[in-house]
Each structure stands twice: as C-alpha cells, then as structure tokens.
Design goal:
Blueprint: E1 11-18, H1 21-32, E2 35-38, E3 48-52, E4 55-62, E5 71-77, H2 81-90, E6 94-102, E7 106-112, E8 118-124, E9 139-146, H3 149-160, E10 163-166, E11 171-175, E12 178-185, E13 197-203, H4 207-216, E14 220-227, E15 233-238, E16 246-249
Length: about 250
C-alpha cells in the first residue's frame, strides 16, 4: 500500500465480527501483538479496539445479528456518509444499513457493490480510523474478490473516483495513483457458495513465520505463503472462528 495514512475514499479501518470475542482477542494478540481494549459502555455492545502502541489498528466485535457472518470487514473514508450512500445507490449498489451516528466518533453505513461485496462507509468525527498503516501488525492492503469485475470497476470509479491500474494478471486500486488495494476475479477455483467480499491484508515482517504462528494458534491456511510477481510475499489464513484475512510483506524496492 503506497498510502501511509487514511485519505478520503481510501481504506481507513477494518473490523472483525466474530462468534467468540475472547478467543479472537487471544488469537490476534498472539499473531500481531495487539493490545485490545473493550469499550465498557453497555451501548457499545462489546466493541473492542486493538492497538499497537498507542495507535488504533483494527476492531473486534461480537456478532450483532444472527445473519451476520464471521468475517473481516473493510471501511472506506466517506467525508459525507449520506452523500456516499446516495452515490452507491445511483451506481447500482445496495444499502444494508442506512447511515447512523456512532456516539461522537463518526457516521457509519454498510453497503454492497453491484457484485454483492459488502463494505462500510465511515464519516470521521472524533475518530479518524486507523492510526497506523503498513507497519507490522497493521493494515497493509485490501483486496476485492468478485465475480463481476467489469461492473464493480465502473462502480468504484464512480463512487470513490479510484484510479485503476490493470494488467493481465491483476487490477490495482489507487487514489491519485497511490495504490492501496487490488481485485481478483473469482473463477472456477472458488466454490459457488463463497460470496464476493473484501479481504484485508495485514503487514508483517515475515509472512512464513506469521503463517506458522497462525497454525500454532489453531488457525488454518487457505493459501500457503507465496511470492507474487512484484516480489511481495503473501498468505491467507483463517482464524479459529472461520474469518479469513491476508498477510503481506513488501518486496525489495
């Protein structure tokens, strides 16, 4: 990710909805060295912010609805959440949760793109989102897995104004040329029941070692550590409750 801070239209936060909050705290603390702090207010519903040092880097939450899957979610900074929701609708997306205020922290909505991938919109007030990017244990990349690349490319360019750098093997998203994520077309190798989704990648110093740490902590590997074309090393683990996430290191510049 070339972005080292949250910018309008870019990824600003990621949070896990999990069926076992305490187990998730232990797992990710073991893997990334996070320091989780749970909001004590009853109305916060167990919302837990993970820190590296003093910087917030991600959130862990209980499942708030029976239909909610165990999964990581990605939030994008929308300076005007209500306006962004209107843009999503106009561009062919759908709204799962209308904009709502979250204390004095910001304004929040949940939407889907035309391919069905859910993501979140965050209008920051007192809480801007992640305080650290690309450092070990923090968000390093976001990737869209989709079955409709043509429609969703047009959608995200319209809604967020993203730049698109497409090659034969991979499409990268950017803001004014600073890439922060990519897109993978879900072909036959993906089971039909796997929906389109956004996947956060966390930066680590050593993908292979962290992948083994995941296994030792009772996670599994969906994709073994692999070197991709630009020299980066990646892997995709799944935590003990079933949530997928990516591991990422930058190659030599």
């Amino acid at each position: 990710m070339k972005l080292d801070k949250a910018v309008p239209g870019g990824p600003c936060w990621t949070e896990l909805g999990t069926s076992d909050l305490e187990a998730a705290k232990r797992f990710y603390t073991n893997i990334f060295g996070w320091r989780p702090e749970t909001d004590p207010r009853q109305e916060a519903g167990g919302y837990t912010i993970a820190h590296l040092g003093d910087a917030p880097v991600a959130a862990l939450t209980p499942l708030y609805q029976e239909s909610q899957p165990v999964a990581w979610n990605v939030s994008f900074w929308a300076p005007d959440a209500d306006g962004a929701v209107a843009a999503v609708r106009a561009a062919g997306g759908a709204v799962l949760m209308e904009p709502m205020d979250v204390f004095d922290l910001g304004r929040f909505a949940v939407v889907t793109d035309p391919g069905g991938a859910a993501f979140q919109l965050w209008q920051a007030r007192s809480f801007p989102g992640a305080g650290l990017f690309n450092a070990p244990g923090s968000l390093g990349w976001v990737e869209l897995m989709t079955r409709d690349p043509v429609a969703v490319t047009a959608f995200y360019r319209t809604v967020f104004g993203w730049t698109v750098h497409a090659s034969e093997s991979y499409t990268q998203w950017g803001i004014e040329g600073s890439d922060f994520g990519g897109m993978v077309e879900m072909g036959d190798k993906f089971p039909h029941e796997v929906p389109s989704h956004w996947l956060p990648y966390f930066a680590v110093e050593d993908v292979d070692r962290t992948a083994q740490d995941c296994i030792a902590a009772e996670g599994t590997l969906l994709m073994e550590p692999t070197t991709i074309g630009d020299g980066r090393r990646i892997a995709v683990p799944r935590d003990p409750q079933g949530a997928m996430f990516g591991l990422y290191t930058a190659g030599e510049e």
